[in-house]
Amino acid sequence: MDFAGAYTWVNIKFLLEGFGVTLQVAFFAIILSFFIAGAVGTVRYAKVPVLSQVFAVMVETIRNLPLLLIILFTFFALPEIGISMEKIPAAIVALTIFEAAMISEIIRSGLNSIDKGQIEAGRSSGLSNFQTLRYIVLPQALRRMVPPLVSQFISLLKDTSLCVIISLPELTHHAQVIYGQNSGYLAPILLFIAFMYFAVNYTLSVISRRLEAKNI
Amino acid sequence: MDMFLEGLKNTIIASLIALICSLVLGTLIAIFRIAPFKPINWIGTAYVEFIRNIPLLVIAFFIFLVFRIPGLAAGTMALTIYTAAFIAEAIRAGIQSVPKGQMEAARSSGLTYPQAMWNIILPQAIKIVIPPLGNQFINLVKNSSIIAVIAGGELMYQADLISARTFVVFDTYIFVAMFYLVLTIPLSLGVGQLEKRLAKNN
Q1: Concatenated DSSP letters for A162-215?
Q2: According to the model, what pLDDT value does residue A20 have?
Q3: Cβ B173–A72 below 8 Å, yes or no?
Q4: For residue B142, what are the contacts with CB-CB under 8 A and spacing of at least 6?
Q5: Could you say which of A78, A165, A190 has the minimum Cβ distance to residue B62?
Q6: For position A101, what pLDDT does the model report?
Q7: Which residues fall within 8 angstroms of residue A122, CB to CB, at 6 or more apart?
Q8: Could you give the 3-state DSSP secondary structure of residue A9?
Q9: For A74, which of A12, A94, B133, B137 could close a Cys bridge (C-beta 3.0–4.6 Å)?
Q10: DSSP state of B147
Q11: A125, B109 in Cβ contact below 8 A?
C-alpha cells in the first residue's frame, strides 16, 4: 500500500475528471427517467385502457432484471439490430430505462396513497379530472414521494459505477486505470473513490431527511 | 446450455449464502443501532450510512483485489456486506414502529430487556419487516450479476463468455434475461401477495 504515491495531484485530478462524467451521466439519467416515469406512473394510476397494461408488463420486466444486463444489452446487443450508440449516450439510455421503471412505481404508489375522499371532494367542487390531479392530488403526493425518490437517485448515482463494464470513462473506471499501473495504489484509490461517492450520496440523503422533517 | 445452468447454480448459491449471512449481520447491526448505549449506536450508524452510500461494485473490487479472494466468494462477501446495511435499516424501522408503550408494559410486568425484545417486540416487528426484506432479496438476486465483473462464474459471467465466443450477442442476452426473470418474478409476486395478506391482518 502506497498512500503517498497514490494521492498525487495528477491521480486526483484524473479521478475528479471521472467523477465529472459520473455526475453528468447520473444527472441526465435522473432528469430523463423522472419525466418518463412521471408519464408512465400517471398512465398506470389513471388506468388508461391498454396503455396501462402494456406499461405494467414493461415495468415489471425491467424492474426484475439486473441493471448490468440492461447496460450490456444496450451497448453490445442493440448494435446487432442497427442501434449503436457511443458510450456516454448508451450509459444514459440504459440507466434511464432501468430507473424509469423503478421511479414509475414510486410515483404510482405515491399517487395511490392519496385518500379517495380528496378526489371526490375535488370533483364535487367542480374541478375536472385533470384539474383534480394537478391541483389536489399531485401537490400532496409529491411530498410523500420525496424520500423514496431521493433514495432512488442515490442508487442511480451508485449504479453508474456498473458502467465500468462498457469502460465508460467514469469514476470507477478511472480508478481502475490508476491502480492498473501500480497495484500498490489499489487500496488507497478504492478507499478514495468510496469516499467520493459517499460524500455526494450522504449529502443527498441528509437534504432529503431535512425536507421530510419540514413537511410534517 | 451447460454453461447457463452452471451460471444459474452459482447465482442461486451466491444469493442464498449472501441472504442468510446478511440477515444475521443485518439483525446484529440493527440491534447495534437501537441499543441503549451510545458508542455502539455510532458503530451501527456509521456502518449503515457508509455502506449504503457507496456502490456495491466498489466493495466487490476492494474484497476481490485488495484481499485477493476468488471471484465468487468475494462477490458473495460483498453482497453480504452491502445487503446487510439495507436489511439493518428495514429491521430497525420495524422494531421502532412498535409503539413504545409495548416495551414499557413488558418491562413493568417484570420481563428483562432481552425477554421483552424477544417475546413482545420482535414478533410484532416481523410483520412489518417481512415485505421490505423480500424486496431486498429480489435486489440481492439482481445484484449478484455484478459478480460477473470480478469473474465469479455466475449467470451474467457465463452469458458474457458465450456471447464473446459465439458472437451471438442479442439472443444470448435475451436468453439470460429469461433466466433472471424466472428467478425474480416469482419472488416479486410472492412479496406482493405477502404484503396484501399482512395488510389485511391489520
Answers
A1: GGGGGT-SSHHHHHHHHHHH-GGGHHHHHHHHHHHHHHHHHHHHHHHHHHHHHH
A2: 92
A3: yes
A4: A64, A65, A66, A67, B180, B184
A5: A190
A6: 94
A7: A131, A132, A135, A136, A137
A8: helix
A9: A94
A10: G
A11: no
Question: How far is it between the farthest Cα atoms of chain B?
Answer: 70
* B176's grid cell: 439470460
Residues of chain B with pLDDT under 50: none
Determine contact, residues B146/B71, Cβ cutoff 8 Å: no
User: Within 13 Å of residue B145, how many CA atoms lie on the same side as its CB?
Assistant: 27
> Cell 469473474 belongs to which residue?
B151
- Residues B60, B64: Cα–Cα separation, whole Å: 6
Chain A: residue whose CA lies nearest to B184: A64
pLDDT mean for each 10 residues of chain A (216 residues): 78 90 94 94 89 92 91 88 87 94 92 88 88 87 87 91 88 88 85 92 89 68
Per-residue burial over A122-151, b if 16 or more Cβ lie within 10 Å, else e, is beeeebeeeebbeebbbeebeebbbbbbbb
Q: How far is B118 from chain A (nearest CA, A)?
A: 30
CB-based burial, B33-67: b 16+ in 10 Å, e otherwise: beeeeeeeeeebeebbbebbbbbbbbbbbbbbbbe
Residue positions counted in chain B = 202
Residue B105 at interface with chain A, using a CB cutoff of 8 Å? no
| Cβ pair B66:A165 closer than 8 A | no
Of A65, A161, A193, nearest to B181 by CB-CB distance is A65
**Type of residue found at B86:** F
Task: Give the A:B interface size as CB pairs under 8 Å.
Answer: 109
- The verdict on a CB contact (< 8 Å) between A68 and B145 is yes
Q: Which three cell numbers stand for residue A78?
A: 442493440
Q: Which among A65, A165, A172 has CB closest to B180? A: A65
pLDDT value at residue B201 = 67
B27 touches chain A (CB under 8 A): no
Which residues have CB under 8 Å from B76's CB, separation 6+?
B14, B17, B18, B21, B147
Query: What SS3 state is found at A70?
Result: helix
CA torsion angle for A52, B142, A86, B169 (degrees, to 10)? -100
Q: Which cell numbers hold the place of B150?
A: 470480478
| A215 within 8 A of A149, measured Cβ to Cβ | no
Residue A215: the pLDDT is 59
What's the predicted TM-score (pTM) here? 0.85
Alpha-carbon distances, residue B78 vs A138, B69, B137, B190 (angstroms): 39, 11, 15, 26
